């Protein structure tokens, strides 16, 4: 833990908590949690075999709680960073509505609850996988990579890519090539998604001392990396069709979305340094969300059709 982090939590620990229920919900990072739940459901329904609907619900609920616990622990540790960044300064801890110690206890209890429940009621492979995911996000990414290397989001992005594999594991008790491909799509999508954000939020990261790629290597190098990763993830998005896991409709949609993703990446790559509004980067960031959501939504629909209608 850095000196500034220790000092911030020492200063913050004496605050009187003014937390309301919505503040604790905010600690769970609901938008991130929704993506975790969504992709975990895709993994669960794409997996071969069957799972009792009640057990399946418990599995998704525990994956959601585990993802939320990771968010709470992330906010606890990063409260010093959040306090100086405009987009995070109103979060519950830096704004003083929740004490850091309360957020830490909240995150630890939810982590233990989610892992033990998933392991006991579903299977211990999925429970251990969830535990590893929480550990990876909190310790490997938040405590180590985020503050030490501009490759933080590349390596750390694995944590956000694990949920479809955990959903798959809840059904099968293991993983497979198909679940690994779902993981890889999210994993390789993460860098261009977050680096597009980092381009137009580089001042925020600079004030916080977070070594995001634009602040360390410069905007030109970041724009090139965005293009490179997009050129990799766009074809990978089509792979489930090429390997026979999804239909030609999925393949066509993934191809079309991937082509537009590349178009947006090229626009970012060609973006002049004089563009202070960062319009191409903002469009890239927004479309990256559309891309991943659409890919997984169609994957989900086709998984439901195959599972329940055998088509």
UniProtKB/TrEMBL annotation:
InterPro entries: Protohaem_IX_farnesylTrfase (IPR006369), UbiA_prenyltransferase (IPR000537), UbiA_prenylTrfase_CS (IPR030470), UbiA_sf (IPR044878). It catalyses: heme b + (2E,6E)-farnesyl diphosphate + H2O = Fe(II)-heme o + diphosphate. GO terms for cellular component: plasma membrane. Signal peptide: none annotated. Keywords: Cell membrane, Heme biosynthesis, Membrane, Transferase, Transmembrane, Transmembrane helix. One of its GO terms (biological process) is heme O biosynthetic process. It comes from the Bacteria. The chain crosses the membrane at residues 32-51, 57-77, 98-118, 124-145, 152-174, 180-200, 221-243, 249-269, 289-309. Pathway: Porphyrin-containing compound metabolism; heme O biosynthesis; heme O from protoheme: step 1/1. Its EC number is 2.5.1.141. It is found in: Cell membrane. Its main location: membrane. GO terms for molecular function: protoheme IX farnesyltransferase activity. It is a multi-pass membrane protein. HAMAP family: CyoE_CtaB (MF_00154). Belongs to the UbiA prenyltransferase family. Protoheme IX farnesyltransferase subfamily. Converts heme B (protoheme IX) to heme O by substitution of the vinyl group on carbon 2 of heme B porphyrin ring with a hydroxyethyl farnesyl side group. Carbon 2 of the heme B porphyrin ring is defined according to the Fischer nomenclature. This is Protoheme IX farnesyltransferase. It comes from Limoniibacter endophyticus.
